[in-house]
Amino acid sequence: MPREEAGKIEEMVKKAALSINPGLQAFACGSYRRQKPTCGDVDVIVSHPDGKSHEGMMTKLLQSLKSSGFLTDDLTLAENGQHRKYFGVCKLPGENTKHRRLDIIVVPYNEWACSLMYFTGSDYFNRSMRLLAKKNGMSLSEHSLNKGVIRKGSEKIFEGTPLPVFTEKDVFDYLGLEYREPHERDW
């Protein structure tokens, strides 16, 4: 889909989220955030800086988007720790608009930066960052960057201790890398 259309989808989700709680943050990630001219789908992550108001948000957000007719089909709703992920299909208002794939991920704020980086990608960038973390005795996921990870072969014996990560730049700093803007992450 054209980048402009992905931006309109992000705005629809953001508007619905802010109508529920004005303090929520909602951003489209993936190829849209990497400033690609086209996007295969739209991934929007949602959280709240207070670390609590994201709880119960997915149900309210989906109800709002469904009642407006924006969400047309549900594919799945999954939970992974405190992450809640919705996979579905949406359609912008108006004639001749197409059905588009939409993923909404609600995360706790202490996982915001790692989630933002993970869902922005690219896939190769993510694999490279995880490998570098592993080489440095760390572990990087969409949830956290952990230090002091103990491995026996490919098996983790100790998950490590989560590092305080408030921004994507923090991850780069811990790994000894110069920060790269999202549009520079298509390795």
From TrEMBL:
One Gene Ontology cellular component annotation held by this UniProt entry: nucleus
Keyword Iron applies: no
DNA-directed DNA polymerase X domain span: 1-186
Molecular function terms from GO: DNA binding; DNA-directed DNA polymerase activity; metal ion binding
Residue ranges of coiled coil: none
Alphabetically ordered keywords of this record: DNA damage, DNA repair, DNA replication, DNA synthesis, DNA-directed DNA polymerase, Nucleotidyltransferase, Nucleus, Transferase
Catalytic activity: DNA(n) + a 2'-deoxyribonucleoside 5'-triphosphate = DNA(n+1) + diphosphate
Matches recorded under InterPro entries: DNA-dir_DNA_pol_X, DNA_pol_B_palm_palm, DNA_Pol_thumb_sf, DNA_pol_X, DNA_pol_X_beta-like, NT_sf, PolB_thumb
Catalytic activity, EC: 2.7.7.7
Localization in the cell: Nucleus
The UniProt record lists the keyword RNA-binding: no
GO BP of this protein: double-strand break repair via nonhomologous end joining
PANTHER family the record matches: DNA POLYMERASE LAMBDA, DNA POLYMERASE TYPE-X FAMILY MEMBER
Family under the similarity heading: Belongs to the DNA polymerase type-X family.
Cited function: DNA polymerase that functions in several pathways of DNA repair. Involved in base excision repair (BER) responsible for repair of lesions that give rise to abasic (AP) sites in DNA. Also contributes to DNA double-strand break repair by non-homologous end joining and homologous recombination. Has both template-dependent and template-independent (terminal transferase) DNA polymerase activities. Has also a 5'-deoxyribose-5-phosphate lyase (dRP lyase) activity.
Name used for this protein in its record: DNA polymerase
